């Protein structure tokens, strides 16, 4: 039977929002983020990173650099709480209109959030039920993604979350829940999952 999943945005949810991370050492976990992932692991809830990473399309850095950032992310999760992500998806593509310049990655892509490509790919690969799933993010576009996929959206107040709530960033949004941070989001999920 298809299982529920918790999809996690990266910047501003797991690690501190600090713009484009040109140095791997500049990736730092948000307090209690590792604890939150560990809680998902303990409850056998499939935990999947879904991240727009337009750095390669903008010509800022290579795919290898994005992979190195994700190795550090996984290392820090493991080091703090022996926590782990079950899968990692990211979209390196960006349309020309949105600022893509490197021809290798400059295209429209159904993987770019709030399009649902990464969730659909994960659902096929790991037998996930998107309607029973959750998306946790710090942007209105993460909540749009959740709703586009038929999942529930949780907005955290780390990263851009507070700016979204005050109306000074992106657009108005109606998440199923607004959480202080990822740990509180996961605690809410654990009391609201339907199985
Ligand atoms: Mg984010």
Automatic annotation (TrEMBL):
The record marks 51, 113 as: Stabilizes the phosphoryl group. The keyword Aminoacyl-tRNA synthetase does not apply. GO terms for cellular component: cytoplasm. It comes from the Bacteria. It holds the Pfam family Hydrolase_like. Keywords: Carbohydrate metabolism, Cytoplasm, Hydrolase, Magnesium, Metal-binding, Zinc. The active site is at residues 9, 11. It is found in: Cytoplasm. Substrate binds at residues 9-11, 17-20, 51-54, 112-113, 139. The record marks 112 as: Contributes to substrate recognition. The keyword Hydrolase applies. Its EC number is 3.1.3.-. It is an enzyme of class 3 (hydrolase). One of its GO terms (biological process) is carbohydrate metabolic process. GO terms for molecular function: metal ion binding; phosphatase activity. InterPro entries: HAD-like_sf (IPR036412), HAD-SF_hydro_IIIA (IPR006549), HAD_sf (IPR023214), Heptose_bisP_phosphatase (IPR004446), Histidinol-phos (IPR006543). Its cofactor is Zn(2+); Mg(2+). Zn(2+) binds at residue 91. Belongs to the gmhB family. NCBIfam families: HAD-SF-IIIA, Histidinol-ppas. This is D,D-heptose 1,7-bisphosphate phosphatase. It comes from Euhalothece natronophila Z-M001.
